[in-house]
Each structure stands twice: as C-alpha cells, then as structure tokens.
Write a structure and sequence with these properties.
about 425 residues, 11-stranded mixed β-sheet, globular
C-alpha cells in the first residue's frame, strides 16, 4: 500500500486540526488454555497468559505514535468470553478472574480489558449464569475490566429471560459503584448480534472464530468528516455522500497503515480496522455536529434518523473501498454523554430517549452512555433492552444498551466518568 506525500500532508492536518486519532489498538487473546476447576488457579493462569501475550503492546503502540505522529488514544486487551472457560469451575463467584484481568491490565499498562462476557442469545449455561451474577461485584472490584452479555441474534431471536436478568445486573452494578459516579454500569453493555472482532469497549471480546492472538484497530474522525462537509455546504446530498465516502477512505488508509505496522512488530496477525465515528466531548469532534452540518437545525429534530442513515452508509462504503480488513462495528456511534453536540441537544430537549431509539435502527450500535434516573425499575430497563434487541434482530445489525442508573442523584446533577469509556 503506497502512501503519497499529499496523503501525508492531509493526515497531518487531520491530526493537528481536526481531532483525527487511532482510538484504540486492541490485542485479542485466546484464554481457552486457562481452564481449571479451581477459580483461583484459573485466575492465575489468566493473569500469566495476558501479561505474557501483551507484554510489548503498549511500548509498540507508543513507538508507532512517535514515528507516525498519529495519536493512539487507548491501548486495550480483549479476551475470550470468560463464561466460556468456566464450565468446570466449582465456585459460584467469578470475581477473582476479573480481579486477575484487572491486575494484568495494570501490569502491561493498557487502559481497558474487555471480555468478562457471556453469549446467551439462545440459552444460558451454569457458567453463563455465574458470570452474569458476578458482573456487579466484578466491576465494583476492578478499574479497567469491562463486561458484556449478548442476549439476542437475528437467527436465534431474543433470550427474554436474559434481558430481564441483565436489567437487574445493570441496576446492581450502578448501586455497588454509587460512590464512583455509578461507573460500574458504564463498563457494562448488553448486545444483540454482538461481533467477535470489536475493538471498542465495553463490548470487546475475543470471539470463537479468531486466531490465538490478533490486532484489531479502531479509528475515529468525526472532526475530519465535519470539516470536509463544511467545504460542500449547500451541495446536493449525492455530493455530501461522496464527500463522506472519500473522507472515510482516507481515514481508513491511515488506520490500516498503523494496524499493519503493529501487527508486524508484535508478530501477531492483523485482524480488522474498525472505522467508527466515535465522538468525544471535545468541541469539533461530534457526530451530532456532523448531522447539523448536513442541514439539521439541531440533532434530534425531524430528519435526524435520515441524516444519520446517510452518514452511516457513506462511512461504511468509504471504509470498504480503502481496506479489505474492515470489520468490527464500523459506522457512526451516538454515545450521548461522550458527544458535545448530543449533550447540547439533550439539554435543550430536542434529543429524547424515544428519538434516540429510532436513531439506533440506522447507527452502528445502540443506546450508549445514557444516564437514567437511579430509581428506574428493572422492568423498565429490561423493556429498553428488549426494544433495542428487537431492532437489531429484525434488521440484522448490532444493537446495544449501555445505560447508567444515577443512584442517589436527581435531575440536573452531572456525572463525570473521568474520560472516554468507548
């Protein structure tokens, strides 16, 4: 893949002025060799496996940052869904495994570790139930571990028992971390049609079809797309779509370059590039502002879903043209509390939960990073999970729910999670 001087100049401008970054380099690690009936022995094996496999991840990523001048915001690990290696475990509480994952993550210097997970879309084993029951305590006892549970798929339908159970798990995770802004619920996501190569948190895990280890890269550039659209203000929609595709193409090329270099230096197979417009609270790095640049008066008004569909479609097509390794979730993310424009739209009342649910039918994931009243019942949360799972199941797309019940807070209070959780 030849990179021209013009592309280098464009990329430098994207990085320095338009908030372009590699959002994450995620190392997927197979833990199936760590099986043991004793939970503490299994946890020790997990720690040893993770620390040996990821020993060079952070130094390599930092070296690539210096050489290419492109920020790599997060270095992460995803592992085999923990429920899948716990069938023989006799203990009911799997928290020691999460603690070992957390220690390993801190030892190698990564930001997050994903994979305290279960896939229960068709039914749940004893190990799956143990894992779901352990999630609240596990997230309360750790700083970097993220959890996910897949409760539905297009082929299997929705496991409604699991959806209801996970609503209670979300509530309990928030309650156990109420003294830390309910952060436990912020590190937990419930999926329909979860993908096996997702590099983003909280839903990353190392799927069954993956190699022993793999490098997956997530790139992000809402600011780059917003800047490009400012140059075609007033043009027809086909020009808008073509501009987004060309921009996505350039962003993906940069991501593939970094991914291939990381793969070669770590001697680990290159998996996928996930081109997701993942916003940050920084001004100019917002998906909502892109939609408004496309012609909306404010995000959440009539036409928002159509604009988001055009954006998501063009991003995916541009990415596929640039690389045959596009995967993960690729598209536009709409995490409300991590997007400056969406925070503004929610504050002014134009973006409601109902409108957000409609938008999830065409975006990359679903209802993401939404703070809800702390007294919201498990029944209501389970209904929200079921609605999102139904959208994903019927439309053959990934959907998800990551809501944070604000335990002990009232309307108007602000929760600060201290940085990106995506």
């Amino acid at each position: 893949m030849q990179i021209t001087p013009a592309e280098v100049a464009e990329t430098l401008a994207m990085v320095s002025k338009q908030n372009l970054d590699i959002r994450t380099i995620t190392l997927g690690i197979n833990l199936r060799g760590c099986v043991d009936a004793d939970v503490d022995k299994l946890a020790s094996k997990v720690y040893d496996r993770m620390t040996s496999a990821a020993e060079k991840l952070v130094p390599t990523a930092e070296q690539l940052e210096r050489e290419f001048g492109i920020p790599i915001v997060n270095k992460r690990i995803s592992v085999t869904p923990i429920a899948e290696i716990c069938a023989a475990v006799t203990a009911d509480d799997l928290t020691p495994i999460a603690v070992a994952m957390d220690r390993a993550g801190k030892e190698v210097g990564v930001d997050f570790v994903g994979g305290f997970s279960a896939l229960v879309h068709k039914g749940a084993t004893r190990a799956d139930h143990k894992l779901m029951d352990s999630i609240p305590a596990a997230l309360a006892a750790t700083d970097r571990v993220c959890a996910s549970v897949n409760v539905g798929s297009t082929r299997a339908g929705i496991n409604m028992d699991a959806a209801f159970k996970m609503a209670g798990v979300i509530k309990r995770a928030a309650e156990l971390t109420a003294d830390r802004q309910c952060i436990g619920a912020g590190k937990l996501v419930v999926f329909c049609n979860a993908v096996e190569d997702n590099p983003f948190m909280a839903g990353a895990f190392h799927g069954a079809g993956e190699p022993e280890c793999v490098i997956n890269v997530g790139i992000s550039g809402p600011g780059v797309v917003h800047h490009a659209l400012q140059q075609v203000k007033g043009e027809p929609f086909d020009v808008v779509a073509e501009t987004i595709k060309k921009t996505a193409f350039r962003i993906t090329r940069m991501g593939q370059l970094v991914a291939r270099e990381a793969s070669a230096r770590l001697e680990v197979p290159f998996g996928i590039v996930d081109l997701s417009l993942a916003p940050t609270p920084a001004v100019g790095d917002s998906v909502a502002r892109i939609l408004e640049e496309m012609g909306l008066e404010v995000c959440g008004t009539h036409g928002t879903t159509a604009a988001l569909a055009l954006l998501n479609d063009a991003v995916k097509k541009g990415g596929v043209m640039a690389s045959n390794h596009v995967g993960g979730l690729s598209g536009a993310f709409i995490p409300v509390s991590e997007d400056d424009g969406m925070i503004n739209a929610a504050n002014c009342g134009s973006l409601t939960l109902e409108k957000l649910e409609a938008m999830t039918a065409v975006c990359s994931v679903g209802i993401d990073m939404v703070v809800i009243p702390g007294d919201t019942s498990a029944e209501v949360i389970s209904g929200l999970i079921a609605d999102e799972a139904a959208i994903g199941m019927v439309n053959s797309k990934t959907t998800a729910v990551r809501v944070i019940p604000a335990i002990g807070h009232k309307a108007g209070d602000v929760l600060d999670f201290g940085g990106l959780l995506g």
